[in-house]
Amino acid sequence: MPNASHLLAVDIGGTFTDIVLFDTESNHIAVGKALTTYPDPSQAVLSGVTQLLKNHNIDPASVRQVIHGTTLVTNTLIERKGARTALIATEGFRDALEIGNEGRYDIYDLGLVKPPPLVERRLRFGIPERMTASGEVLHPLDVNAVTELCKTLNAEGIESVAICLLHAFTNPRHELDVYEIARDEMPNASISISHQVSPAMREYQRTSTTVANAYVQPITSNYLERIQSGLARAGLNAPLNVMLSSGGTTDIETATRFPIRLVESGPSGGALAGVYWGKQNGFNDIFAFDMGGTTAKAILTHKSELSVTSVSEVAHVHRFKRGSGLPLLVPMIEMIEIGAGGGSVAHVNNLGLPAVGPESAGSTPGPACYARGGANPTVTDADLLIGYLNADYFANGSIRLDASAAEKSFEGLAKELDISITKAAWGIHQLVNENMASAARVHAAERGLDIQKYAMVTTGGAGPVHASGVAERLNVRTVIVPPIAGVGSAFGFLLAPISFDFTRSYLTRIDQVDEPLLMKILRDLEAEGRAIVTNAGVAAEDIRVARSVDMRYLRQGYEIRVELEGNEINAETLNTLEQRFEEEYMRFYGVLCEGVPIQAVNWRVVASGPTLEIEGQALKVGEESQKLDQPYGSRNVVFNPEDEAALTPVYRRESLSSSFKATGPAIIEEAESTTIVLPNWSARVDVTGCLVLTRNK
User: Which of 7, 25, 111, 220 has the highest Cβ tally under 10 A?
Assistant: First the structure.
């Protein structure tokens, strides 16, 4: 029996599936990259894992843990390809899902379109019952009505049911009764109940979250089962943990119950990788920039800490307009989608201006240069045409790019814009950079942060290609390109602890807290968290528990999250809580509301296991090669369309030593990505193996 010293991380993206194999004894990392397979992404996972193990002569039995992140949940919601779902709500409240907040996300758009509910009105049902806001039964549950309703749902062929009753987060008794009836009457249906999925106030958001969970639950369950059984057939019987949007991992059982927690599982790995590599290079404030084949994400840290939010959106009608998506109340690392990915399609919009996305070529058929049937111009095609990419060394040479196909795809766009193909391609590259810089700038301003003081850590296959261009527009002076940046999210999975977040709404003024009641709430949440983390394989003595509170001034509409320390609730801990709230409020808004009572809304508990400690300087990536610090060749690259293409030196990253330094322009290639060093930038390799790009004064 081999020593189980390997960790395996798999990240499914819209275009590529990334695989990282880490040996905890030797600190050696091996990576693999494969095109994501549709309609069944598990095929790429299983074939890619098998091939990687074979290439490196690794016994599958030596893998002790598999960590998996996926875009399946997000794609299912965006494409509206989930289960046939019904909603059971309190009588009179079935339309909360459609009424929403009664607001318009763009007050000047007369043709505004709101995201349609995941459940059509005819499949939304109200049942006689009513619970008060304090958790008292106002009207008892009509059991017979629920039983008859389940018969109707069976006749409709319902595959999944969302149960969301008024004030169930305060007293879940009626929801549990409905669940027991539905389970008996509909044994083949998946059932989601709101007080477990999202036990927090705000009726519309809680209903939307529960419905989304039910909508994706059967598909996610089948998918994870295929992954687990496929890995077992390949000889990998290690525990399979799934990456959560909050930056932790959990077991299959929990992920199947709460699949909506996986909605941003992939990008959360990129955030963890950004923090890790920033710390390795001595930076605490990090702008993590993750750009893959479909989207680009931005994450900003504060003193090396990632901000976790409970309010987010998915499946936007308008990609960058807040309020145009389906709201979710689940813990998630705070990030924004700032732009397109490598496979995003370029076109001329209704105003006659060039635009990119939101449509993506994905992996099937992929960008035109993949020569797999794609005909539309994409960002990757543009990057190839201006010389940024090597046609013979893309994805470690597994995909040979076709420059003539890329050129042909840009002919129509160039003609519409009445410019040359080269200028069109260069313009698309610059447009993508500008769009991402603008979105990141706004995101930083909304959080009260000065992004110019940040260091950028870039991951994703397309991230290093665009990083210095985006940084230049933001006046960010340092860009860090980690080793294996092209599979950065998968690497980040290795850094994620087994953990789970729990929330309970208890609305109270801080000076009126019922201390025994609050202690019971916190102890109940901690017990639930410890049970889940223990079931996922963490020893009881290794479990850490963190508490926090969402707080606001009385009658405000938005909360600020504040850490709650100590194991007991008493006057001292509550006084400290108030002080910390005021400190955070001042940091956000610059002013305090003197004399206004402070109110707590949601109480949160996170139970987690230990984090894997990896020393960056000890990492061994790929095979050792001779360190020449010399370019292996050169090619013509367009940095300014008004000038001739510049003959630019091209380096192989694996041949660069820790003493390497170069002044741009330069191109540094590796198996999973390509780093562009612009003419006014310089590059060096540090002791951790990171490429550090610096803007020259």
Answer: 220
